[in-house]
Amino acid sequence: MPIAIKDYTWEESDTDVHITVPIKGNNSSKADLFSSDEYIKVNSPPYFFEMFLYAGVDDSKSVAQLGDGVIVFKLIKKELGIWGQLSSSTLGDKDKMKARRDDAVTEKHRRIEEETEEKRRKKREKEKLALNEQMRLENEEREKIHEIKQTEIRQATEEIEDWKKKHQVLPGDEPHPAYMTGHDDGDDEHDEEDDDEVHHTPEDKKALIDKLPPPRTRQNISVTFTPRVFPTPMRESRVHEEDEWLRKQAEARRIPEIEDEDLAPEERDPFWLKDKGDSFFKGGNFQAAVNAYNTAIRLNGKVPAFYSNRGACHLKLRNFIKCIEDCSKAIELLTPPVPANASSRLRAHTRRGTAFCELELYAEGLQDYVAALKIEPKNEQLRQDAERIRHVIQGTT
């Protein structure tokens, strides 16, 4: 229950009122203050202070000063004069106090909204003035550029007119026809011969044809293409991701040398162990398959199929946590996602999603089934399983 502050002090003059409110042991900067024209409030748990003023004050000009464990209100009176008392006669009537308190809060909120709207209006006016000024400056700049262009056009026109005047052909200075036609006078006989049509005999035509070069011989050009691991054309491929995947595959194929006298020569090949584990899995001997995959991973821990297959064994053995760990490791190694590892990613997501559902973590299981559906959207069985998980989550089954 809040403790009402009673040991406040106040003093007044004809123009203002000073109220000092002590907050014992509390930080005054963290106190909640509220003031209006006729009501002030201080809330600093566990202390509480409120006062219904004797007369109205100008809240917009009044201030509150926060000190060390004390709050001082300086209230400016609306009307000059001495009050003689600080609190209103309403004090003691709970209904009237509640009504005046609600009215003060409502009036404060209305005033804040008006001030906010006024600030927005002034901001819009400033933005409008700034925009108009910017448009005016741009128009002036365009007019200057237009005037410069017109001046340059006038100068170029004047220069052309001056050049025409300087090179104008006067009467009597026309060039001789011989210069215009390109023929010399007195060579009329030669001109007539040039005007006659030239005729060629069949022999001349045959001689011209014989002089033509022979046609080019036809040849075949063999084009070879660099073989690609991925089926997509080079222009449509994601070169960086595919190169990264091929690099990981090459690293996974490198078999480290492990000194273990108990291993036979063929047991040092992790891929031979994988095939052995696959045969154990098909025969239903899941624990033996896990042992084979364990040795393969010890020899080479960068092949995602080893983890995915061991996860399938753990799923059969109901070791769901280990299944989730192995499938997560396989998905981590199956990056970047490329078409070549799509089927492996599909199996890893499906197995991990099944393990999550067995642990009743249906939301996580649904995420894996959705990821599997993105890889193979036309898989109807996956779609049905995902729908069943959604029903379980929604509680409709």
TrEMBL record:
* Name the UniProt record assigns to this protein: Dynein axonemal assembly factor 4
Where the record annotates domain CS, the positions are 3-87
Skewed-composition ranges (Basic and acidic residues): 94-119, 197-209
Q: Which GO terms describe its cellular component?
A: dynein axonemal particle; neuron projection; nucleus
Q: What keywords are assigned to this protein?
A: Cell projection, Cytoplasm, Neurogenesis, Nucleus, Repeat, TPR repeat
A Pfam family per the record: CS
Where does it live in the cell?
Cell projection, Neuron projection; Dynein axonemal particle; Nucleus
Region annotation (Disordered) ranges = 94-127, 168-220
Residues in TPR repeats: 346-379
The record ties this protein, via SMART domains, to: TPR
- GO biological process, alphabetically ordered: cilium movement; inner dynein arm assembly; nervous system development; outer dynein arm assembly
